[in-house]
């Protein structure tokens, strides 16, 4: 039972993280939007960069990108928190039932991993060369999120048989 409770709480923790990020992005919209504007416009990358043709300077497109980011974070929160509830409902069930209940949480964690890896490391970090910016480089925070989410996803994916190890 301890391992199942642990998995449930860790999934809920990722959901809580995403929910707080959504709250922060909505309540401090302009400050967080500044980050997106600088990354997309590539206005703080190295001056001799040959990649600035990729920049998105249109404020409307930047707004759409930011809203898509917030919507994705909200989806992560809903899936992970909903997945944790579902896991909590099956804590005392058979291993097969508990394993089946992991689907929603797995979708949420996978979306979170893809969001922070593809969104911030691939698109932000490499496509928009965020790594070149001294002020607007979010790769380290994204990497921390990827590590936490990846750990929880791997841990959750371990089979939960009817025998409890701990």
Automatic annotation (TrEMBL):
Listed transmembrane segments: 7-23, 65-85, 105-129, 141-158
Record keyword Membrane present: yes
Keyword Translocase: no
Coiled coil: none
UniProt keywords, alphabetically: Membrane, Transmembrane, Transmembrane helix
A Pfam short name: DUF2165
InterPro entries xref list: DUF2165_transmembrane
Protein name: DUF2165 domain-containing protein
Organism: Shackletoniella antarctica
């Amino acid at each position: 039972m301890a391992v199942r409770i642990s998995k449930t709480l860790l999934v809920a923790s990722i959901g809580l993280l995403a929910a707080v990020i959504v709250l922060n992005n909505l309540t401090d919209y302009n400050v967080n939007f500044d980050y997106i504007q600088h990354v997309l416009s590539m206005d703080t990358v190295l001056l001799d960069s040959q990649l600035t043709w990729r920049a998105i300077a249109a404020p409307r497109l930047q707004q759409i990108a930011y809203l898509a980011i917030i919507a994705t974070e909200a989806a992560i929160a809903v899936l992970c928190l909903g997945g944790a509830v579902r896991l909590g409902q099956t804590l005392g069930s058979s291993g097969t039932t508990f394993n089946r209940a992991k689907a929603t949480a797995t979708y949420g964690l996978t979306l979170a991993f893809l969001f922070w890896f593809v969104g911030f490391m691939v698109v932000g970090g490499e496509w928009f060369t965020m790594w070149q910016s001294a002020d607007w480089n979010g790769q380290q925070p994204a990497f921390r999120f990827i590590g936490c989410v990846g750990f929880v996803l791997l841990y959750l994916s371990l089979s939960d048989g009817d025998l409890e190890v701990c």
